[in-house]
Design goal:
The protein is of the alpha/beta class. Helices cover 62% and strands 7% of the residues. Helix 3 runs antiparallel to helix 5.
Length: 366
């Protein structure tokens, strides 16, 4: 059975229950760590030298479930769990680990929360345990390699040189594919974006290391700086935008691409980059008075933080007319999450973000 379809039977967790879960995240995580670490068969469940990775998973699980309960979006849960299975089994975890872990969470929740608060949450955990086989089957399904949306190029060659951090080779391949003076949008969307998506897919399968991914990201940002320095920027015509990642987000390339493409279209852009402080962002919005805020969220368990940030912006006097768009991998599985966290719109890529901002600006000018 498709877990996404089956998730429709789950009921939203009442506010008091999800608040109790939220307030107990640290305690529950500690309980689950102790339970798993005391098992004599732990090495068979998580593999060799994976204790810290297991603890990281438990912390991430707590944050993610907190977001699921906050949003009431169980389809998101059903889509993410197979991804978690795939990522951790690629790093030596056994599939048998997951029902053991989920039962440890259920036991901790039952022990820590009063029964009237724990029951609706335990229903969700019981559902996940029942669907363990379905999640495992979904995790085994092959995923398609990334491709360039408009070019017939050997993306593997690009991926190789980016993983090596070879700027000259990457520049040479780009010229072969796009010519001596590529358009900024083409370069970003036809080369850089699919390359990083493919490297992300390879990381999921433990085919490249985190260090290699960081090398590739550094090369992408270097190439973006060089490409952007070559464009001719026209007058801004009063169009202003702030682009940044969401709170606690360390991924900033998406927001950077949006900022660059809008500046190339005549916008005056301010890029805050990764993990901006809410206070700093609000201060910038007060001073700069943009028409659009573009917010990028990659990791699903940062959605709640993004929602709280958007709520803070909405309550800010003088920012009532600000339009907020969101994008990033966190919304790729369910675009309705954009509305759920209070945004005005969703853009699946940097070009779509630029077009959405232009459309909003035209509405204001009418």
């Amino acid at each position: 059975m498709d877990p996404v379809v089956g998730a429709g039977v789950l009921s939203a967790v009442p506010t008091a229950a999800r608040l109790a879960f939220h307030q107990s995240l640290g305690t529950l995580t500690d309980d689950v760590n102790r339970t798993l670490e005391a098992r004599p068969d732990l090495a068979g469940l998580i593999g060799v030298d994976n204790l810290d990775l297991m603890r990281d998973n438990h912390a991430n699980h707590a944050s993610f479930m907190d977001n699921v309960f906050f949003l009431g979006n169980f389809k998101l849960l059903a889509r993410i769990v197979p991804w978690v299975y795939r990522v951790y089994t690629a790093r030596g975890f056994s599939l048998d680990y997951f029902p053991v872990e989920l039962q440890a969470w259920a036991d901790a929740i039952g022990n820590r929360l009063p029964s009237h608060l724990s029951e609706p949450i335990l229903n969700v955990y019981a559902w996940m345990i029942r669907h363990h086989g379905d999640f495992a089957e979904q995790a085994r399904l092959p995923d398609a390699a990334a491709t360039s949306p408009a070019l017939s190029v050997d993306l593997g060659r690009f991926v190789g040189v980016f993983l090596e951090g070879d700027f000259k080779a990457a520049e040479r391949l780009t010229k072969e594919a796009l010519g001596e003076s590529p358009e900024l949008e083409e370069f970003y969307l036809w080369i850089l974006d699919p390359v990083m998506r493919e490297i992300g897919r390879l990381w999921e399968h433990s085919l490249v290391s985190s260090a290699q991914e960081h090398v590739a990201s550094a090369l992408v940002t270097r190439m973006m700086s060089v490409a952007y320095s070559r464009i001719d920027r026209g007058p801004t015509l009063g169009k202003r935008v702030v682009a940044c990642s969401g709170p606690h987000e360390q991924h900033q390339i998406g927001a950077w691409m949006v900022s660059d493409l809008l500046e190339a279209r005549g916008w005056d852009a301010r890029l805050l980059g990764a993990d901006p402080s809410p206070e700093g962002l609000l201060s910038l919005l007060d001073e700069f008075r943009p028409a659009v805020l573009a917010l990028s969220v990659t990791v699903p368990f940062h959605l709640r933080d993004a929602a709280q940030l958007i709520e803070s912006v909405r309550r800010r006097p003088g920012l009532e007319d600000l339009r907020i768009m969101v994008g990033g991998q966190a919304f790729a599985m369910d675009a309705s999450l954009a509305t759920a966290i209070g945004a005005d719109g969703y853009a699946p890529d940097a070009r779509s973000a630029a077009l959405l901002a232009e459309g909003w600006w035209e509405e204001v000018q009418r």
